[in-house]
Amino acid sequence: MKKYKITLIKGDGIGPEIIDEAVKVLDAVAACSNFQFSYDEALMGGIAYDVTGDPLPRETIIKSLACDAVLFGAIGGPKWDSLPREKRPESGLLRFRKELGVYANLRPAIVYDELINASSLKPEIIKGVDIMVVRELIGGIYFGEPKGRTEDKGWNTMVYTRSEVVRIAHHAFKIAMTRDKRVCSIDKANVLDVSQLWRDVVTDVSAEYPEVELTHMYVDNAAMQLVLNPKQFDVMLTGNIFGDILSDEASMLCGSIGLLPSASVGDKIGVYEPIHGSAPDIAGQGIANPIATIASASMMLRYALDENEAADKIDAAIKKALSEGYRTGDLAQYDAKEVCSTSEIGSIIANYIQR
């Protein structure tokens, strides 16, 4: 029997609650599959600062690089907002991504038919939406040098090298080959030299994937088109800051940020996490929606462990729970048969898998 070692980084706020439910579901799917999990916990974020004085202890990096995949909850909260920037939870996360070399952030935006009324857009606009945003994660303006500020001025530099664009473009085209074979590359090449390099390199890489249709779109138009006609998109490829914004916009097509997973992958290890934050205002109340984290565990099975059948079981169980009308409070107004706690939703999904 295969054995997989998973590093769990629960983090802050609702992080521990939602990770616990994902583990419950992973154990359920392992029980009816030919593999087992072992788990090793590590610290990152505000809790890591409180315990060690560092939002990213070295031990966390070592554990993460030694496992098969990382399942991560969420970090941050107002408790740590007054710390120096380098000590804040978010700085630890940026260093974590850089240290692990996870350069590709995969964010699916899928509209569940059962929750089509949860979106602020008309059902005919969003029915059937299935988008994969492929965001470059460890380059661009968040990491570019020089950067700094004075009392009256702040500056950051948006930098991409050819090699950084080549590797993320290959990732997007390979994913497109498993989907509808369409890539829309998002940039601002009419204004930014760095975006013109991006566009030129993506075009060069596309020659290696003749079956995939490549289009280009300026980021401001893409933001508008996501609301106007989201079904035109299959794979959206873009840089760090544009992807940060567009993937959050795409998530709201689906009605709740509590539904959507993500994967951050590279050549060494992958990190799987919900796209939402730590929600400290509801932490410990048992009302957080764990579905995004459970769906992230499914992505982990699919992309890190090549356990596609097990991933399919989790996805089917999530869909069945929603179709049966089980909802957490954030979705209670949308055809809820029963409003459930965080733990109850996790148990329902796990039980569907075990049946």
Give the helix/strand layout.
Blueprint (H helix, E strand, L loop, with lengths): L1 E10 L3 H17 L3 E7 L4 H7 L5 H8 L3 E6 L14 H12 L3 E7 L12 H4 L3 E7 L11 E2 L4 E2 L6 H16 L4 E6 L5 H14 L6 E6 H10 L6 E4 L1 H12 L9 E5 L4 E5 L16 H14 L3 H16 L2 E2 L10 E2 L2 H13 L1
Parallel strand pairs: 1-2, 1-3, 3-12, 5-10, 8-9, 8-10, 13-14
Antiparallel strand pairs: 4-5, 4-11, 6-7, 11-12
Secondary-structure class: alpha/beta
Distance between the termini: 21 Å
Order of helices and strands: EHEHHEHEHEEEHEHEHEHEEHHEEH
Sheet-strand content, in percent, reads: 15-25%
* Number of β-strand runs: 14
* CATH overall fold name of the largest domain: Isopropylmalate Dehydrogenase
Radius of gyration: 20 Å
Biggest pleated-sheet summary: 10 strands, mixed
Q: What is the correct CATH architecture of the largest domain? A: 3-Layer(aba) Sandwich
Count helical runs.
Answer: 12
Query: How would you describe the shape?
Result: globular
Integer count of domains: 2
Mean pLDDT value: 95
Proportion of residues in helical segments: 40-55%
Can you identify the CATH superfamily of the largest domain?
Isopropylmalate Dehydrogenase
What is the CATH first-level class name of the largest domain?
Alpha Beta
Description:
The mean pLDDT is 95. This protein has twelve helices and 14 strands. The chain has helices at residues 15-31, 46-52, 58-65, 89-100, 123-126, 162-177, 193-206, 219-228, 240-251, 291-304, 308-323, 342-354; strands at residues 2-11, 35-41, 69-74, 104-110, 130-136, 148-149, 154-155, 182-187, 213-218, 235-238, 261-265, 270-274, 326-327, 338-339. It has 355 residues and is α/β, with parallel strands linked by helices. α10 (291-304) runs antiparallel to α11. The chain starts with a strand and ends with a helix. Strands 2-1-3-12-11-4-5-10-8-9 form a ten-stranded mixed β-sheet, sandwiched between helices. The chain has a two-stranded antiparallel ribbon with strand order 6-7. It has two domains: 1-111 and 255-355, Isopropylmalate Dehydrogenase (3-Layer(aba) Sandwich); 120-254, 3-Layer(aba) Sandwich (Isopropylmalate Dehydrogenase), CATH 3.40.718.10.
